[in-house]
Every structure is written in C-alpha cells, then in structure tokens.
Amino acid sequence: MAILAKAPPARLAELLPDLAAHAVLRAPETGAVMVRGRTGGTGAPFNLGEMTVTRCSVRLDCGAVGHAWVQGRDKAHATRAALADSLMQTDAAPRIRAMVLEVLAAEAKAARTARAGKAAATRVDFFTLVRGED
Amino acid sequence: MQAQSLTGGFADAPVESARAFRAILEAMARPGTIRRVEGAAPPAPLSPAAGVALLVLADPTTPLFLAGAVDCPAVRDWVAFHIGAPLAGAEEAAFAVGTWADLQPVTRFRIGQPDYPDRSATLIVEADRLEADGPRLTGPGIREAARLSLPETAAFQANRALFPLGWDCILTCGDRLAALPRSTRLEDA
Amino acid sequence: MYVAVKGGERAIDNAHAWLAEERRGDPAVPELTVAQIREQMRLAVNRVMAEGSLYDPDLAALAIKQSRGDLIEAVFLIRAYRTTLPRLGASQPVDTAAMAVDRRVSATFKDLPGGQVLGPTFDYTHRLLDFKLAAEGEVAAAPTQDTIPEPVPHVTGFLNRDGLIEAEPRDDTAPPDLTREPLELPAARPLRLQALARGDEGFVLSLAYSTQRGYGRTHAFVGELRIGRVAVEVDIPELGFAVEIGEVELTECETVNQFKGSKTEPPQFTRGYGLVFGQSERKSIAMSLVDRALRWKELGEDFTGAPAQDEEFVLYHCDNIQATGFLEHIKLPHYVDFQAELELVRRLRAEAAAAVQEAAE
C-alpha cells in the first residue's frame, strides 16, 4: 500500500492501465490528515499541520477487497491504488508484484539515491589550516 | 474486518449527508417532530436512522460510546470503516448510541462546562416505537406544545434543569428519528 | 454599531473582472502555469503550505497564482479551502531522525555522524543579482557523489548521553488541536508549537530576533538544522494498522541554549524546537528561539516582561490570517459608527469652547 500511495499517479496509470471490474465500497473521498511531530523530535506529539489525502475502497467480483489512502487529491490515483491492493489478494498477486510494485519500488529507490547523491556532493570535508597554539 | 461492515454507508455522500443533516437539524430545531431519513444500512442491531445520525454527525474527532447490544464486532467494524470515530467510555463520549435501558445511568454523560456548554454528549436512543404521543413538550422551537413517546420523563426533566448545560438527545426507530434538545421542557401526559 | 446596507453590486462585479485582468497582466507575456509556480517558486509555495497549515504544493501554487503573489492572501485561500475537507485522521508523529536529508548542518559540532551536508542553500552565495537569470537558459545538472546512505542521528542525542542537555522523554498524550478547540491559556508546549508552526514568518522572525537582542535572551546556538523528506504514516481503521500514505518535506531546527540552572533545574543546556512544512529554515530557527523563550515557566526562569516570553502576546498575535482579518476589516464601511464619533467630537468641542468662554467671562 505504501508503494502504491507514494507512486507518481501518472506512472501508476502507465503500469496499470486497465481497471478491473469492481464495486465501489467507498467512493474516492478527499480529506485531510493532521500531520504530527514530536517536541524536540522525541517528546510529546503536537499537531504540525494537515495534508490532503484521498481514500478509496473497492471490491472485485471475486470478493477481494482493496483499500487505498494516498497523499494528494487525485481520485484516479486512489481508485487505481485500491484496485491494485485488491488484486494483491487474488491469483494476480505475483503478476502485480512483478509488473507494478517492484517497478515502482525500484524507481522510488533510484530517485531517492539520486537525491542522496546530490546531498552527498555538498557534504563538507574539513581540513585544518592552522591550529591555535596552546 | 467482515465484508458486511464495508457496505451500508452513503452511496452518494455529499448529497445524502446534506439531506440527512438537514433532517436532523430540523428535528433538533422543532423538538417532537418525527422525520424519515435514508441512505444508511448499518449492521443489526443498529437502526438505519441511528446509522444515518452517526454517519452525518460523528467523525474521527468525536469519541463514541456503544451501549449494550450495539457494542458488537459488526457495528464496531462498520463504525471504524465508515465513520472512524474512536470508541470510548460513556464519560468521555461525544456521542452515545443504545437503548434507553442500556444508556443508564444517563447522569454519567458529559454535560459541558459553563464556558463551553457545547462540550457535551449527544445521546442517540434506539426506541421500539416513536410516535407523537406521551409527555407534553414545550419550549424553543415548539409553537404550542408537542408530544413524543419518550422512555421516561424524570431524567429529561432533570437534564432540562441543568440548562444551559446538559446532553441532547436524538430518538431513533427504524428509519425515523426525532430530537429532544436540552432546552425542551417536559410534563407527564 | 453595524448597519446593513445594499448597493454596489455592479461595482463589485466590475472590480472582480478588472482584478482578473490585472492578475493576468500583459497578455503578450506568456501566462504562468500552476506547475511553473510549484516548481520555480517553491519557497513561496512552502511558506503558503506552512502558514496555510495544509501540505499540498499544487493547491498552494494555485493560491499564489490566484492571489497575484500576495502570500498572506494565498494563505487565506488555503485556510478557507481546508475547512471544506473532512478530517480523515491524524498521522503517527513523524520520525525526523529517519529523514532523507537534503541538508543537515550543526553550528555546535563540527564532526558528527552523517556529516555537515549543505544542501541547496543560499548560504555562501554572494547575494549579487545574477543577470544570467534574466535571460532564459538551461541549468547544468548538480554534481552527485556515490553514497551509501548512513543514519543521520540527531545531534542533541550526543549531548544527552552525558546528561548535559535536558531530555525530551517520549510521551504519547494526544495533543490539543487549535483548529478544533479555541486557544486557551495557559497553553501546553504542543499547542504553542502548533500555533508557531502556522504563525506568520515575519512575526516569529522578529520575536526571535528580539530575544537575541536581549528581550528574553536565551543564548541560542543551532544544535542542528535539517531539511528533507519524512514518511507520513497513518493508522487505517479498516486495516487496523499504520501504513505510509506519502511523504512531506520538513525543516527541523533544534537549538541548544545556555542555562545556568534555576531553583528547580540543574545547570545544563536546554532546547528550543522548530518544525515547519517545506524548506523554511528561517522560520524553523525563529520558531525554536521563540519556543525556548516561552518555556521560562517550566524551567523556573524569571519572567522579564519580554514580548517573546509572553504566551498570550505571542500566541494571540502570530496568526497572520486572524491579524489581517481584523486589521483589514476597518477599511469596510463603518459609516454609521463614524457618524456617531463625529457627533461626539463636535459635542465635546462645543462643550470645551463653552467652558473656555465661561472662564473668560
């Protein structure tokens, strides 16, 4: 679910173009989730601010149920993520895992690594010029 | 989560919840009037009207107390999926659902504080019958007097005596509901 | 006294039409897209998200476009929009120690695990206008360096080991929410941090600066400043467990403050905390200074009368939407109450003149 939620919506649509026949248990609904932090990073929780979230739940004809909660306001993204989640409860699971989830996970990892590489290039290497006499 | 808990919410939430909210608002504004509501099909023993009231009024920020028979796995799951209200004890609840007998003692529910009388509970009372007979109601929103089949009179009179504090009440029966805000005065029939 | 008046409808419609035209500017110049604002005005987008208290870069960019770049107006649009959203729940507190950092610096420790990572910063630029930007041109890709991601622990953790800095023991009390309940004083620290996180950057900056200049001085150093992305996890009721539903960019600042000890606390370093949506380091540093100044009571310090120590002053005035709403309402018609004032002044003047005349006679 996390991989589907964090996938770029357009990329998910490319990888999973067809929507399987399904009944809607909860139509895509956009709302807000309050994001919390902790005082000092580790202490008591506090409310930082909200983020937009869209959720959706579907049921396939075979009875498999899928849920999605995705960041943002893209209803097609939420529907597609819920469908992929429901397909993961069926015989199609290995195919979805290989053709959708693993591809998305690899792309997310590559994007993260690329950004970490740029950050690493700005890491400071200190060298001592003159140490004060003591 | 059982499959039956995933159905029975509003099919067209914006429209259905707006209509149901209007019905509840009108019921609260005109104590004693009985209105029909639709759109919810919650698992037994929760009535459709109580289901509608919860869908419209409760959310993840309103602690909910399930009293007696409605405190069952099917209803708990239905609430979790469709409403997300955290289940809580009677003393912390913003909403409480159950039969009048199961809600006793009603003196344990929140009545608000003098500076925030709105921090009080709303009781959703499941009734076997709901008719325009019984104790005589007077007060804001009632032209002359109204009558409503209430489970008792004394507890509502005691609640009225707390005004502006006190809890409010929605009575549900099948797909019909009526309301009794804390401002209504009661006299035995 | 307020009196309802009618009229001006045509004038208002025409004013709105002209506003739309002015917003567009010269039609010979290509129109900005929301995506362009989101990508190229990102720090403005961040500010609107932080003070609008809603993380959604596309919405913030749209608000900036609609408000013609008036960021407080954009914040207003976002605040109005967020009231239309159902609250679906609250996240698990984000784990900033697990942040994928773009930037992470410490002013107190030179050598620290994870290193000093400058990130895309304005620091060390010469603040000279770059006229190359006036001409459009491609930008070369930033250099990268192969790296094996290593943990980037919080700097304050090192000091904690020696007991030289106050601890922040974990606590799981549900925090108060000022978007749901009116602000009541005294406010607990979680409520203060929520108010500061959505507070006006300029106001919080000035208050923080006032503490540095001596009005409630706390001798702050930036123990650590980090910017990056953290996962947001939410308990999904239908599943019964927490799932990552997305990522937000955050700026976190922890200050290390000198503290001589008080009647209740031993001498040690104390902490101020700032956490803000987006890359907003000025705001997060300012927030942590003001947070520290407001903690005088729990640390047993003296109240010196400094504005930054005064929780009512800070919390009731840091919200720019409340402030601008009250400020700007005085330009709306007040014809009748001004008439009353006018009559009062005339009467007082007449009385004063009569008194002068009487004294002269």
TrEMBL record, chain B:
Single GO biological process annotation from the record: organic phosphonate metabolic process
Annotated InterPro entries: PhnH-like_sp, Phosphonate_metab_PhnH
Keyword Lyase part of the UniProt annotation: yes
Keywords: Lyase
Organism of provenance: Paracoccus sphaerophysae
Name the record gives this protein: Carbon-phosphorus lyase
Gene3D superfamilies, per database record: Bacterial phosphonate metabolism protein PhnH (3.40.50.11310)
Molecular function via GO: lyase activity
Automatic annotation (TrEMBL), chain C:
Record-level GO BP terms: organic phosphonate metabolic process
Cited InterPro entries: PhnI
Xref: Pfam families: PhnI (PF05861)
Protein name, per record: Carbon-phosphorus lyase complex subunit PhnI
MF terms in GO: lyase activity
The entry's keywords: Lyase
Domain of life according to the entry: Bacteria
